[in-house]
């Protein structure tokens, strides 16, 4: 499996496994099936359950087309919306354990996802052959949208040996949540863990809250509201171990 070296803000290169063309195609198929299911359900509701087909009677071809576009609109914006909300993943990518990241080490923005989405018009030309050729020909399996936005799709299935972690033990099948942690340095992570450990011992919730907010601010992260501050910090520490793979 090929790798890509992403340079962090501390000028440290971290190697990531590049998602294979096969993984990306399977993720695309999963997302495609989800979109097909949505269209079938919406049209069934419109014509059969709600019996609104009569609204199309007497309309010209362009008006009918407009109605269908409105009904199926979520399908068209599916990739850019979900990648923005799920930090570089769609349901298909999540199932395949792959993620969109910026090559420069920073978190991809909505603008990056939008550029990738806009270039789909070209990448999907000739039944997706253009995008496929681009992925095969490019060094990092990038389609044209990835090249234009400065992104790549990485695999989250890296093999990690527990003995290679410096801050916390993680399982070999551990799947990280925040690739943005590569922007932190070893010293940053030691400070985070030291303060977190001390706060846990005395149950200092104020320190834990401040620490959590600081990490989110530095890495520009938006997390699931259901995730507690303690869970978040634990995940950040484990993710850093996963991506750096430093030895004791």
TrEMBL record:
Its main location: membrane. Signal peptide: none annotated. Keywords: Membrane, Transmembrane, Transmembrane helix. It holds the Pfam family RDD. The keyword Ribosomal protein does not apply. One of its GO terms (cellular component) is membrane. Residues 19-150 form the RDD domain. The chain crosses the membrane at residues 25-50, 62-81. It is a multi-pass membrane protein. It is found in: Membrane. This is Uncharacterized membrane protein YckC, RDD family. It comes from Chryseobacterium oleae. The lineage of its organism: Bacteria, Pseudomonadati, Bacteroidota, Flavobacteriia, Flavobacteriales.
């Amino acid at each position: 499996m090929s790798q890509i070296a992403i340079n962090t803000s501390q000028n440290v290169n971290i190697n990531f496994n590049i998602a294979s063309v096969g993984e990306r195609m399977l993720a695309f198929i999963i997302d495609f099936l989800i979109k097909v299911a949505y269209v079938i359900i919406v049209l069934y509701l419109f014509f059969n359950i709600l019996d609104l087909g009569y609204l199309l009677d007497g309309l010209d071809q362009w008006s009918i087309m407009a109605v269908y576009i409105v009904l199926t609109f979520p399908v068209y914006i599916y990739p850019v919306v979900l990648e923005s909300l799920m930090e570089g993943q769609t349901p298909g990518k999540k199932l395949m354990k792959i993620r969109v990241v910026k090559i420069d080490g920073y978190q991809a923005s909505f603008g990056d996802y939008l550029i990738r989405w806009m270039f789909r018009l070209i990448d999907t030309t000739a039944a997706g052959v253009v995008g496929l050729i681009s992925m095969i020909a490019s060094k990092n399996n990038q389609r044209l949208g990835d090249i234009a936005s400065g992104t790549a799709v990485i695999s989250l299935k890296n093999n990690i040996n527990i003995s290679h972690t410096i801050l916390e033990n993680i399982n070999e099948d551990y799947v990280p949540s925040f690739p943005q942690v590569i922007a932190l340095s070893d010293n940053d992570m030691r400070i985070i863990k030291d303060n977190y450990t001390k706060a846990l011992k005395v149950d200092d919730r104020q320190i834990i809250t401040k620490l959590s907010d600081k990490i989110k601010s530095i890495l520009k992260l938006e997390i699931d509201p259901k995730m507690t501050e303690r869970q978040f910090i634990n995940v950040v520490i484990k993710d850093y171990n996963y991506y750096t793979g430093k030895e004791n």
